[in-house]
Amino acid sequence: MEDQRVIDRINELAHEEHELFQKESGGQATDADRERLSRLQVTLDQCWDLLHQRRARRAAGMDPAQAQVRDEKTVEGYVG
């Protein structure tokens, strides 16, 4: 997957996330909306992680195409 495709996917997911945040702040979100929002946040983290992996591999002279989406437990377990 090329970087631009990952960036496009991040933008799509962020747009949907924003719409769900608006529903939540307006008191119109359903349980399904909240569940979708939770899943979106994980998927966004995975996409960002993939993009960072690709850029790091490229900077290190490695093949960015070898970067892989990491599981939820990995990307949600990062400590800053």
- Number of β-strand runs: 0
What is the number of independent domains? 1
**Structural class, from secondary structure content?**
mainly alpha
What coarse outline follows from CA principal-axis ratios? elongated
- Count of DSSP-assigned helices: 3
* Succession of helices and strands: HHH
Residue share in β-strands: under 5%
The oligomerization state is single chain
Poorly predicted regions are none
Major beta sheet summary: none
Average pLDDT level: 94
**How far apart are the termini?**
27 Å
> What is the CA-atom radius of gyration, in angstroms?
15 Å
> Helicity level, as a percent range?
over 70%
Give an account of the 3D structure.
The protein is mostly helical. It has one domain (3-71). Helices cover 71% and strands 0% of the residues. It has 3 helices and no strands. The chain has helices spanning 3-25, 31-59, 72-76. The chain is elongated and about 50 Å long. The model has no long low-confidence stretch (mean pLDDT 94).
